[in-house]
Amino acid sequence: MDLRGLKTFLTIVKLGNFQQAAQELRYAQSTVTMQIQKLERDLGVTLFERGKSFRLTEAGRICSEQSAHILRDVDQLQNTMSDITLGESGSILIGAMEPAASFRLPNILAAFMERHPKVQISIQIGNTCTLTELTLKGEIDFAISSVPTTSSGLTFDPLFSEPLVLLVPSVNPLAVKQDITIQDLKGERFLVTSRECVFRKKLSILLQKIGTSYTTLEINSLAALKYYVQANHGIALVPAATVTPAPAGTAVKIVQDLNLDLEVGFLRSSERTTFGIAEEKLFAFLRKSLCVF
């Protein structure tokens, strides 16, 4: 069935006249007649009663009632395909680690979606290990994560460094100490996250430098660490973005002789060779916005 013939049929029904329909569609009247004849052959019915007056057959009335939504759906489909081609529509699945997912992305994505309101974005929040697995499986389009432990099947494009700071209870003597070094941390209790957490791995570097003069308390939540510091359970190495400003009852300190900033960037599957226009627009927008950090 030719959609042009269906559109011509509905125009005739709307205007009640073949000649007026031909004028509106800018067709010769003979073209309109041929389109209707072809539509009737395709459908196997007669749509109009032939005579001096304009009148639809029963089949014509049903066709008029049920075909209008078909053209609307086709028009919507064509508009959607056009938007996808231009990068103004589409569905994008991204992954993000903390604290970028909570402290950096919300405002950035709000600005992007204001410019591209038809683009649908889904966010999967997880640690680098989880995001690596999702990227390799093709369950997300790309991720914002730290450097993966494996480079097989992946590409990592650095964006910014996530600064890490020491959060201490305000009652701890370290809270008022001006310059803190690794040696000052001996004998402290460190609050640590799960072994899969990249911040736990960074902390391990610090603990190796301290030696054996420390104790730990494991808390399986990066977001919960500051509350345990507030309650004087110990000190914690945390992303600066999560404790700016410092929570009540705590102090943020920098370890002078230690650089533990975390490199964060885009994680993509190296096996993907084509990307949607909307995805590339989001990718470029995120790069420009995140590189300022």
UniProtKB/TrEMBL annotation:
Cited Pfam families: HTH_1 (PF00126), LysR_substrate (PF03466)
Domain HTH lysR-type, first and last residues per copy: 1-57
Source organism superkingdom: Bacteria
Keyword terms of this UniProt record: DNA-binding, Transcription, Transcription regulation
Family: Belongs to the LysR transcriptional regulatory family.
Protein name: LysR family transcriptional regulator
Lineage: Bacteria, Bacillati, Bacillota, Negativicutes, Selenomonadales
